[in-house]
Amino acid sequence: MSSLSAPPRPAMCPRQASSSSFAEAFDDARRKLDELGVREPGKEEEEEETPSPALSSSSSATDESAPSLVDTESPISPPTPIGAPTTPAAVDPDVVDNFAFAFDIDGVLIRGGQPIPEAIEAMKVLNGENEWGIKVPYIFLTNGGGKSEAERCRDLSQQLQIEVSPGQFICGHTPMRELADRYHTVLVVGGEGEKCREVAESYGFRDVITPGDILKANAATAPFRKLTPDEHANSRDLLARGNGSGRLSDVVIEAVFVFADSRDWASDLQIILDVAQSRGGRLETRSATFDEGPPIYFSHNDVVWSTAHQHARLGMGALRRAVETVFEATTGGRGVLRTHAFGKPQVSTFEFAARLLREWRATRHRQQRHGLPPTTTPTAAAAADAAADVPPATVYFVGDTPESDVRGANAMDAVAPNEWYSILVQTGVYQAGTEPRDKPRAVVGTVLDAVRHGLRREMEKLALARKPVADGHMPAPVEVRCDPLVEV
Length: 488
Ligand code: G3P
Ligand code: MG
Fold this sequence. Notes:
InterPro entries: CDP-alcohol_PTase-I, HAD-like_sf, HAD-SF_hydro_IIA, HAD-SF_hydro_IIA_CECR5, HAD_sf. The protein has helices at residues 19-36, 43-48, 117-126, 149-160, 195-202, 211-217, 229-234, 265-276, 316-330, 347-369, 378-388, 402-415, 447-465; strands at 68-73, 99-103, 110-111, 114-115, 138-141, 169-170, 185-189, 207-209, 255-258, 296-298, 304-305, 313-314, 336-341, 394-399, 419-424, 442-443, 486-487.
């Protein structure tokens, strides 16, 4: 019997994990954020900063010969359409709200499409199957993509045997939705078949072109890439567009969006560079100065990621590097290439997660008061609302990739009013015994160890502060030993 167990509850039966209560509550919170227009003070300025030719961050800024590679953090926060509001559920007294978890997916919960066994256990622990009988809120923050959020959540619900809702889920391309009004004709790259086009159109993009459409119109675009009959059938006929002029050069790409990992690097690289070196995005044209190409948005910047292979595999960040390097090689170092990345480690992605957790907490607090006889004056109630309108004091961010998960959580911890505690697991990109470039607060074996580490740390805080766990429950005085593999 571990030293940490609280006296069992009378007549306790194994508690049904009610992940649905979190799923619904986060849908409510997400809907509320959409209604609120999702803006924290100062967000507008950030958006104004969205890429302008003047900005250059590449090392070649001083070296006249090198093209200037403009890459910026895209500060866009992702509203997601959520279903009809649910009737405010009775607030579950076992749910804690002073700490929460945020999970990376590949290499932490899932590997090569299969659930990591400890992940299923970890979700049960968070949904009440722990010695304190408490439930801890959690959200998912992945750089992955290539399917709609709803479809990914259906997959995840099956894999983790709990209900996961789009309200709890943020993926790499989710923020791209905000650019649907800014560009009309866009090139969407990556993913399986037509999936990314469907996601882009569901985000509101009006004229979505894929590399397959360009290859269908001009097979010589990528000499060694032959469309399969299905791909040919699914691709759209660009030559029949508009006035049926049959000229590909009538098509003007206003922006390129790489939604998910490319399934064919050679042809995608060729087509992205054709657009980047074109005259203002006009297909089949070549700019004389190589500085008039449209912006290229990548949904994340992970150079490697963890999947079924024992060693990490190349990811979208590697394709981005290839685009930048080959652009430089094929322009003789002239011109301008504008690339942008969303996803982790961008702080704006974590800021959106923080807003989601904060809104979940505020919504829950309002529901808690809902239907209760008003015991205080409206001003006191408003003050209580304001006090509750803060994110949980600590968010445990569990990831497997130091350069995106740990770097992002640490960067957020440096600027956030609450604590973002980075935990690195050894089931994905990070290899045990190696020195992570970005230092996590703790290194543990699996996500289950990470959840236990966070819970123990919180119980230690409470025990030390001698505060009740959740309404009416006192933790047994404990002598706690945090045993992550490494606590940094
Ligand atoms: O393509 C996705 C991959 O790079 C990482 O996904 O879940 O580990 O952020 P995730
Ligand atoms: Mg990962």
